[in-house]
Amino acid sequence: MIRGIRGATTVSVNRSEEIIDKSVELMNDLIRQNQIQPEQVVSVYFTVTEDLNDGFPAKSLRQIKGWTYVPVMCMREIPVPGSLPKCIRVMVTAETDAAQHHIKHIYHYEAKQLRPDLKS
């Protein structure tokens, strides 16, 4: 089965280093909690809010051993008024035997408010 695994994090400033660091932290947690290997991954999509333009969160994947060949893209989030600022979201599609309700979607920092129903 191919499943979508979601996550999000926030940064305090629009700085490339923080965008990449927080994205690495998010991906490492998502990978660990869902026990994902790069060979299982179909693709990874990152989105950022319009106030983040100093770096690509996709670069975070290249810092994780074994993830060099996983297809990854970055896109801009829809600028909905009142939405969470300085937010990085990710969607990982991966092959897994895990049931839908066993997938662990990961939300860090201010992004926890996006899905309070998924407390981990």
UniProtKB/TrEMBL annotation:
One of its GO terms (biological process) is chorismate metabolic process. Keywords: Amino-acid biosynthesis, Aromatic amino acid biosynthesis, Isomerase. Prephenate binds at residues 6, 89, 107. CDD domains: AroH. It catalyses: chorismate = prephenate. Signal peptide: none annotated. GO terms for molecular function: chorismate mutase activity. Its EC number is 5.4.99.5. This is chorismate mutase.
